[in-house]
Amino acid sequence: MIILACDHRGYELKEKIKKFFNNESIITIDVGTYSKEGVDYPDYAKKGVAKVLEDPHNVGIFICGTGIGMSIAANRNPKIRAALCTSVKFAELARAHNDANVLVLPGSYMRASKAIRIIKVFLTTTFEGGRHYRRIKKI
According to the model, what pLDDT value does residue 131 have? Predict the structure, then answer.
């Protein structure tokens, strides 16, 4: 399942991403926020993390203004590997080398078309394992 979480600065991008998933008949769980009214990103990172951890196949897409706050907040949980990705290549490597289970996007600095390209790569890239698995075990 794909878990969506954002703060007020990520709301508009999250809504465009939701529309993309709906058009593709892909079911998501949206844990908020549900408007542009100011909220605190750690609250929504925490809600998103809880949902991601309900099933090992779940992945998260978390969005705040820069993506930095959501990344920091999500990575407080040792079972989360949240990666702030601003390019398709970063998304590919986050999955292939780091087995990231949360993609973080900068809602104030990224167009929906680019975000969707990044999401597609993030969701279709598999973890390579091997030396990368050894490194992840050390985290």
Answer: 87
DSSP state for residue 106 in the 8-state scheme: E
Q: For residues 86 and 115, what is the distance between their CA atoms, to the nearest angstrom?
A: 8
Domains of the chain with CATH codes: 2-137 (3.40.1400.10)
Q: At what angle do helices 112-124 and 11-23 cross, to 10 degrees?
A: 60
Tell me if residue 132 is catalytic.
no
H/E segment holding residue 103? strand 102-106
Mean pLDDT confidence for 64-79:
98
C-alpha torsion sign, points 76, 89, 129, 21: positive
Catalytic option among 8, 57, 97, 132: 97
CA dist 39 and 12 (Å) reads 14
Residues facing residue 28 across a β-bridge: 2
What mean pLDDT is predicted for residues 87-103?
98
Q: Please report the sign of the dihedral spanned by the C-alpha atoms of residue 105, residue 107, residue 111, residue 113.
A: positive
Residue 113 tokens, joined: 């078309």
CA angle, residues 99, 124, 62, in degrees to nearest 5: 65
pTM of the model: 0.96
